[in-house]
Write a structure and sequence with these properties.
The protein is an alpha/beta fold. It folds into two domains: about 260 residues, Type I PLP-dependent aspartate aminotransferase-like (Major domain) (Aspartate Aminotransferase, domain 2, 3-Layer(aba) Sandwich), CATH 3.40.640.10; about 100 residues, Aspartate Aminotransferase, domain 1 (Alpha-Beta Complex), CATH 3.90.1150.10. Helices cover about 40% and strands about 15% of the residues. It is built from 14 helices and 17 strands. The strands form four sheets. The protein has a seven-stranded mixed sheet, sandwiched between helices. Strands 1-2-3-15 form a four-stranded mixed sheet. Strands 13-14-17-16 form a four-stranded antiparallel sheet, covered by helices on one side. Helix 2 runs antiparallel to helix 11, helix 3 packs parallel to helix 11 and helix 12 packs parallel to helix 14. The longest helix has 21 residues. The chain is globular. The protein binds pyridoxal-5'-phosphate (PLP). The site of pyridoxal-5'-phosphate has 15 residues, from helix 4.
Length: about 425
């Protein structure tokens, strides 16, 4: 299939694009371009299509709901799939997280959560963490420091959003988790003391940083964060938009630390590609937020929610959280083996199917090697594998395959990745 006009002619150049390819359709874990080439899709529309493309259960649910009712604003009353999805999401969460507000995207979920925190605590301050990505609207952007380009020239931003150091184990603490935890918590306490804890409504954190570089927060740091919240009456908002929904080998990334946040933000995987986001908290909190405090015309669209129900059914039926853990271990082992013989890789990290492979100029200085990653991504695409990068210098390859990925697909991807690495002039060092 060829296009009559150049595909970019009337599209905004402000949207950064990984590939200059035109996509036509998807089937299972394969994406197809306009030239008829097929790609093993480990990009998943940036961690969205957790069940791959044209999933029979999701497609059937969408078609059935589209035939029945496309839209009625949630302000008009109730629609069965919307109420059912809220119930199903609540069932995946630990008590007392049982109440769901639906929006359209991750950014909107963060925006709403920040409003909820301010209004229910009566405090203005939100503390987010260095390197986080929470979205691009003014509230969420004010908490987003994963890349200076996102905030640059867009100010003034939202006041009272403070940025604490993130306990970045690889980049700042040479792999020492205990030190990252103690210094991270010390930095946070200092910021809290300076601001006055009574002025802080919430801490906002990605339990595993996504866009910032696939940096997991140490478990002990998350414990410390929860304890500080309890001590000072501060709400803990977990941004699970990229790391949630089984991606890390547990349903929610915060469960890896066995903590319960006060508010959880979801989006991306929730409807396998249809726009939907959610804010989840205990009921009492959203009651105190108050009727009419927040709303949305499209949020909780019935078709999106029907798709969302099909996603949760498929995750349960296929035991896909366990699959993410098992396939993630295989993928991590394969990537570790490659890293063991390739000096250009400085680190392989991350739980489950959320793995970052960091490329450096040399391991001692950890100086990022973004250009090499850009070249590898393009080479992998040429060879039929879609993977993406992250990190401010885009020197980290992020591995986010579908949750129902198979062992043979993991091995296929590792094979293509190895082949692509071998095609660059610095050949793999001898084993
Ligand atoms: C952790 C995290 N939070 C928030 C967002 C914003 O979500 P959306 O692009 O759906 O607005 C993203 C998107 O990449 C994300 O990864």
């Amino acid at each position: 299939m060829t296009m009559a006009v150049a595909p970019a002619s009337h599209l905004s150049p402000t949207m950064a694009r990984y590939f200059e390819r035109t996509w036509t359709h998807g089937e299972g874990h394969r994406l197809f371009d306009a030239e008829g080439r097929s790609y093993l899709d480990f990009a998943c529309g940036i961690a969205v299509t957790v069940l791959g493309h044209h999933h029979p259960g999701v497609t059937a649910a969408i078609k059935k709901q589209a035939d029945q009712l496309l839209h009625v604003c949630n302000a008009l009353g109730y629609v069965e799939p919307v109420s059912a999805l809220a119930e199903a999401i609540a069932a995946t969460m630990p008590a007392p997280l049982d109440t769901v507000f639906f929006g359209n995207s991750g950014t909107e979920a963060i925006e709403g959560a920040m409003k909820l925190a301010r209004r229910t605590t009566g405090r203005p301050g939100i503390i987010a963490f260095q390197g986080a990505f929470h979205g691009r609207s003014y509230g969420s952007l004010s908490a987003t420091t994963s890349n200076p380009n996102y905030q640059k020239g867009h100010g003034p931003l939202l006041p009272s959003v403070l940025i604490a150091p993130f306990p970045d184990v690889y980049h700042c603490y040479g792999g020492d988790e205990a030190k990252a935890t103690s210094e991270g918590l010390a930095g946070l306490r200092k910021l809290l003391d300076e601001a006055g804890p009574e002025s802080i409504a919430a801490f906002l954190i990605e339990p595993v940083q996504g866009e910032g570089g696939y940096n997991p927060a140490p478990i002990a740091f998350l414990h410390g964060l929860r304890a500080l919240c309890d001590q000072h009456g501060i709400l803990l908002i977990a941004d699970e938009i990229q790391c949630g929904y089984g991606r890390t080998g547990s349903m929610w990334a915060f469960q890896r630390a066995d903590i319960v946040p006060d508010v959880v933000c979801l989006a991306k995987s929730i409807a396998n590609g249809l726009p939907l986001g959610a804010i989840v908290s205990r009921r009492e909190l959203q009651e105190r937020w108050g009727v009419g405090a927040h709303g949305s015309t499209f949020g909780g669209n019935p078709v999106c929610c029907a798709a969302g129900l099909a996603v949760l059914e498929a995750i349960a039926e296929g035991d896909l959280v366990a699959n993410a853990a098992a396939r993630g271990a295989e993928l991590a082992a394969g990537l570790q083996a490659i890293a063991a013989r390739d000096e250009r890789i400085g680190d392989v990290r991350g739980p489950g199917l959320m793995i970052g492979v960091e490329f450096v100029v040399d391991r001692a200085t950890r100086q990022p090697n973004g250009p090499l990653v850009d070249a590898i991504l393009q080479k992998c695409a040429d060879l039929g594998l879609l993977i993406l990068s992250c990190g401010v210098e885009h020197n980290i390859i992020r591995w986010i395959p579908p949750l129902d990925v198979s062992s043979s697909e993991v091995q296929e991807a590792l094979g293509i990745f190895t082949e692509a690495l071998g095609m660059f002039e610095q050949a793999l060092a001898a084993v």
